Amino acid sequence: MGAARKLRTIKTYPELRKIRGYGHKTKFNYPILIFATLLIFSLAITFKNEPEQDKKEKIKEFVEKSLKEKNNKQKKYYLCDVSDKQAKEIFELTGIDVKGYTWTIENFFLYHTLKEHGNNTKEQKRGQIAINISDFENIQDIINNPDKITLSEGKNSNIHLKIEKQLNELYFYIIEIRKGKKEIVGKTMYKRY
C-alpha cells in the first residue's frame, strides 16, 4: 500500500520527484536553485562593475586588515580580471596567454613591500621614495593604465613583469604570473620622483 501511494504522489506531483544523491534520497528544490543562481550571478556582476573609488576603499580595507592581523596565513584580495588589452600585451612580452587570469594582491606582498621599500632612509640611498600604506590604493590605476610593461627577473621559475606608471610619482609594480592558479600577483612595489 505504501508503494502505491508513493507512486501515485510522484505521478500526480512531478515536482516532488525524488533524486538519488550521495546514497540518500533528497527533494530537488528548483525555486531555491534558481534563486541561488540568480543571487550569485547578480553579486558577480555587481562586484565586476564596482566604481573605482569603491575598489580603492576595499583595497585600503584589505591593506589595513592585513597589517593589523599580521600573521603567516596567506590572504588574497581579488582586484579584477585581466582585460583583453592587458592579455594581448602580456602575451606579446612573454608568450603566455593570460586570458581568464585575475589580478590579485596578497598580504605577504604588503609585508614585503613595506619592509623592503617603506624605510625613507633606505629608499633615499637607492634614489627612491618610501612606500606608504596609501600607495597600495594606486595599484588599480597602475594595472588599468600602465605606461610601460617589461620583463623582470624573479627568484623563482615564474615569469615576472615590471609595470611602470607615472602618477604623482613614478611607480614600479613588480608582478608574478602564476600559471597553475591563473593569477597575476604583486611581488613588490617601489616609487621614484
Summary tags:
six-stranded mixed beta sheet; 42% helix; 193 residues
Walk me through the structure.
It is a single chain. This protein is of the alpha+beta class and about 190 residues long. The chain has 7 helices and 8 strands. It has helices spanning about 1-10, 30-50, 50-70, 85-95, 105-115, 120-125, 140-145; strands spanning about 20, 25, 75-80, 100-105, 150, 160-165, 170-180, 185-190. A hairpin with a 4-residue loop joins strand 7 and strand 8 (about 185-190). The longest helix has 19 residues, at about 30-50. The chain is globular.
Please outline what is shown here.
The chain is an alpha+beta fold and 193 residues long.
Output the structural class.
alpha+beta
Number of helices: 7
Order of helices and strands: HEEHHEHEHHHEEEE
- The low-confidence runs, each spanning 5 or more residues with pLDDT under 50, are 13-25
Helix content: 40-55%
Radius of gyration: 24 Å
Query: What integer is the average pLDDT?
Result: 83
Number of strands: 8
Q: Work out the count of structural domains.
A: 2
Give the spatial strand order of the biggest sheet. 3-4-8-7-6-5
Bulk shape: globular
How far is it from the N-terminal to the C-terminal residue, by CA?
Answer: 86 Å
Largest sheet: 6 strands, mixed
Tell me what portion of residues adopts beta-strand conformation.
25-35%
